[in-house]
Specification:
CATH topology of the domain at 20-57 and 68-91: SH3 type barrels
CATH class of the domain at 20-57 and 68-91: Mainly Beta
Bound molecules: zinc ion
Radius of gyration: 18 Å
Structural class: mainly beta
Helix content: under 10%
Number of strands: 11
Low-confidence stretches: none
Shape: elongated
Number of helices: 0
Largest sheet: 4 strands, antiparallel
Amino acid sequence: MSVKVKSDRILKTNLKQDDEIIVITGATKGKTGKIQEINRKNAKVLIPGINMVKKHRRPSQDNQSGEIVEIPLMINASNVMIFCPECKSGVRIRVQRVDKKKIRSCHRCGHSFDKK
Ligand SMILES: [Zn+2]
């Protein structure tokens, strides 16, 4: 007897760290960047230079006047697509299993995003 596990709450992403991506929606649409960090739990990605927010830093002993620093906020993985250097655009990922390894390639041209 098998037990069905509800997994629709787990958000999945095929993206990995260091992937080149393009933003497909929102204020930063069209921007490209490299994924620095992935939060797999809630399918969010951190891309330096994208979705920067200004934070005010309180004055401290070393810094009397305080300062404004820009830090990147994580964005939803569903707002970005992997960027294919061959197609020069954001593309869908096709996943193939080769020797139990997942190989991700471009849905359109077959360009491999993973080293074999
Ligand atoms: Zn391609």
